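Project standup — Tuesday

K.O.: blocked on the structure for the chain from last sprint. Re-posting the sequence here as requested.
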Amino acid sequence: MEEVEDLDLEKIKSINFLEKIGGFQARNIYVASQILKEFLEDKECLKFLSFTGNLIATGLRGLIKDLIKEKYFDIVITTCGAIDHDIARTFSKYYQGFFELDDKELKNKGIHRLGNVLIPKESYGITIENFCKKIFPKIFENKKEISCYELIWEVGKYLNESSILYWAEKNKIPIIVPGIFDGAFGYQLWLYYQRDKIYLNLFEDQTLISNYVWKAKRSAALIIGGGISKHHVIWHNQFKNGLDYAIYITTAIEEDGSLSGAKTREAISWNKINENAKHINIFGDATIILPLLISFVIK
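H.V.: unblocked you, prediction finished:
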């Protein structure tokens, strides 16, 4: 099987894309690139990066790692799956597959399928469990209460330079995971709680986001995917009269009334995006869209 490899900033810089591509979603990518460039250069703007955990099973892990390493964003909001895959891929390999593979056969061979990414059983749950069992006693030896973002920083100290968590800790960029128990890492936390009564202070995470937002002159967000990681960004920004810049990348549709499919214009009605904000929606697969978008902006 061919290994899934990470993209990075250097790889996409070497590809000569057209400065301006027109029509349908290509036009939206170009508009988004102009918005992204503007807010990344705005030194008084608070910059959010939001994404769903499944993306970290792909080569986008390396690109997102570089965005954090180079401090393009101030705060990250994601799901527990991102923590899971970042830990797992630090120590193990994922592989390229096909959507059409026989899942019964994969199960018998001990392989999980995430879309068309193949994850050997020993590369995921066992790897995460062994890692957590090793580091939790060290992290909680003298501290029984901790915020989620501080815990993630502590975890980052035990990973290497390929890791998103490693660079978040190095640069003290908080990673907020509102649904921390919805994944393997969160489950291992709960299991550890059975033997050592530790306390995860999620109120501190909310306080940190609120403080960031209240102090911000302007705020911006690159939001990839939907669900809790998307909503947590726009929810907090309603209290400062909405985001000043917003880029959504999604494959969800708005016709079912879901938050994941809701477009930027709907967030204006909730005061989550400012009515005078620069905003755009890109409909498409983030594994295609994000490298294109970043390549226009970061040279």
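K.O.: great, moving the ticket to review. The chain has a mean pLDDT of 94. The radius of gyration is 19 Å.
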